[in-house]
Amino acid sequence: MTDNLKTPSDSSITSYSQQVIWAQRLQSIAQSGLAYDTRPFDKLRYEDVLEIAVEMMTAALNAPDQRDALRALYLEQQGHATPKVDVRGVVFQDGKLLMVQEMLDGGRWTLPGGWADVGESASVSAVREIWEESGYHARATKLLAVYDRNKHGHPYYAFHAYKLFFRCELTQPERDIDPRNIETGEVRWFAEDEIAGLALSQARVTTSQIARFFEHYRQPDLPTDFD
Hints:
By secondary structure, the chain is α+β, with helices and mostly antiparallel strands. The protein has two domains: 18-76; 84-226, Alpha-Beta Complex (Nucleoside Triphosphate Pyrophosphohydrolase). It has helices at 18-36, 40-61, 67-76, 122-134, 192-195, 207-218, and strands at residues 84-93, 96-102, 108-110, 113-115, 138-148, 161-170, 184-190, 225-226. Helix 2 (40-61) packs across helix 3. It is elongated. Mean pLDDT is 91; it is low at 1-15.
């Protein structure tokens, strides 16, 4: 989930600084202002605000070489700025959790998922991502968590985002692999005591989040988590 913008590796800083949050807010103000304000003078000011957001974010990332890519990414955004929505499927079988290797993040492990698509409900997007990335067909049964990405130890990201995690159940045991899938590699089931030894794609899911989902598995009546 990088939108072709390089983000820090899992060994980099994973707690959000106030500078990153300010940059995200300035980008959203600039995007909405450029969308709705028709006065030429004010548009120039919003362009200045956008440039400040670019400078702040690249400084926080310690990635001056990403300045042009980030500026282009910000300029692609149209209309009123809102948080992006990432959806993930949480699938258990016999006490083990379904995980996939994210090839865009060096083969690190994650829950199947990605950005929600326009025209789909969030749960449908999660189910589709499970099939595309793992080959398993499933159905969503419960919304486990709605997390603010800024508050859960993920690496820095250019935009504010919400992360939705759905408990899902397999609808058939056999895999039906999507031949178009190039995003994920190996697909495996992991017991809870095996998670600690995995290299996780921290941009997508964290160790503490996975631990929480095992708690939900053991206590299915737990309410939905949210920030």
